Amino acid sequence: MRKHITIYLTLGLTLSVLALLFLNFSVYRLPIAILIGFSYFIWGLYVHFKDKTLHLSIVLEYLAISLLATILLIFISLRA
Amino acid sequence: MINTLKILFTPHEANNYKPKTLHLSSLSIFMIIIMISQLLLSILGKNIAGVLGIATNITPYQLIELTNQKREENGLPALKLDETLSQAAQLKGADMIAKNYWAHTSPDGKTPWVFLKEAGYQYLYAGENLARDFMDSQSIINAWMDSPTHRDNLLSSRYTDIGIAVINDTYQGQPTTLVIQHFGTKLGSVISKPTGSISQQAEALISQVTTSEEVAGFADKFPTLSSFRLTKAVSISLTAVLLAAIIIDTIIITKKKIIRLSGKGVAHLIFLGILLVILLTIKPGLVI
Known about the structure:
The complex is a heterodimer.
Chain A lengths: L1 H23 L4 H22 L5 H24 L1
Helix pairs in contact in A: 1-2, 2-3
Chain B lengths: L1 H8 L14 H24 L12 H14 L6 E2 L1 H17 L12 H8 L3 E10 L4 H10 L1 H7 L6 E11 L2 E13 L25 H10 L5 H30 L8 H17 L4 E2 L1
Parallel strand pairs in B: 1-3
Antiparallel strand pairs in B: 2-4, 2-5, 3-4
């Protein structure tokens, strides 16, 4: 349980910092958007690898969600 | 209808115990829809004036008034509108539109000072602030005040004149409002005592003033929808749908103790929750 809290806390803190950077440094929004998606993808792979549950369907699930979020962030940045 | 919603949002035998909304195929379709809609927005914004665009409430006079208000709050004298500075700002804006760039220095190395000289403003000091895609004058002033270098320009005791250009045109395929703010002090001018709080690096830039009538004319031309607002609305809706599906899925999976091979629901919730906060918080407009 404690291990789970730590990994979720790490994820939440990392993404919160990146979100703040994204909102406050408008000039660097595109690379930060990519970093947000990439961080989540890598986090997913790492956690499932440690759990020994890393299968292709899970990799694709994290890839799709990360990619979708990155696309949304990129498009909103381009329109902002 | 209820059956369809069940398949879309709850883990069920019919969807292999995973909401259809979260299937790889559905996520891929969402991505394709988003990309196609953005492509359409670009095409519509470019080709059908009046369908997509911006309706801003920005005028040079408001910007000058707000700038002088900030200066007054900081014990500085008001800046005078100088038509030559405004003309220089207009030249700078026209150059950015013509050469498709948004920067203090053009791709061919033209600095803001060149436009000042071209307009006939012989400066002792000069400075430039740029902004684009804001919806109102107050937001621009707030953004400049939040940025140390722009704030230095706004609150510099070395300037006596101001020129502003508000240009509504198409930039990178989108209707855009560019704001160029130029500060200056003419050669031979006597300037008030420096406050000492202004950065010595705050050398300036220029901008041009368009008339309020021109701005009003633009608003009439592009009064309808903003591509930013449309993109924001679509993005928030999609993220909210995914979050709803994940919340329902996580609750049912935990309650019924269903075991399946899948990503971590709580992690998806954190990730999409933060994405939703970003989308709800983000505002249009950039300053340099």
